[in-house]
Amino acid sequence: MLIGYVRVSKSDGSQTLAPQHDAMLATGVEPGRIYQDLASGRHDARPGLGACLKALQPGNTLVLWKLDRLGRDLRHLVTTAEDLRVRGIGLKVLTGAGAQIDTTTANGRLAFGIFAAFAEFERELITERTNAGLAAARARGRMGGRPRKMDRATLTMAMAAMSDPKANAAEVARRLGMTTTTLYTYVNGDGSPKAAGTAVLSGTSSRSKPALAG
Question: pLDDT at residue 210 above 50?
Fold first, then answer.
């Protein structure tokens, strides 16, 4: 199934969604399966994109007019594309620099795989920086590690904070006393819980149990 997402960068009427809609229809996307947003900046809320990503199911293909319709910036683009790949969702870009991405073709799958490589590279950098920080802490006589355990109350605050489109993940993590890596283990960039977060909320995770007072 093809599901389309369209967006214009201004909502004052100076730009129109019509060309993107026409391109979606010509590609075979049904009118009722096209999600849209009118946003004027990278920090604007994009409920259409959120609804689109939630509607996508394994085996579906997300169709974009241009690749820049999907991500607020390169990091967000790579993260979102990798999430689609992991979920078994295809990606097809109709025009622009990303038009070679079409997971129904061999070359398109190769291009899509580049996002996975970038995501893996980012994870390795985070691990490397974390290990270096722990080593430096031990050298100064401090034992590093997770600043605090994730419990239901902390997770609820994290989800509320991250649901704000203007939220800065590093700042949210700092205020909650945890690393950005830990934050993203439990919470998606839009504030929704990941599998580990869902386990905490349901009380099925051992990490959700607060440490005993000594």
Answer: no
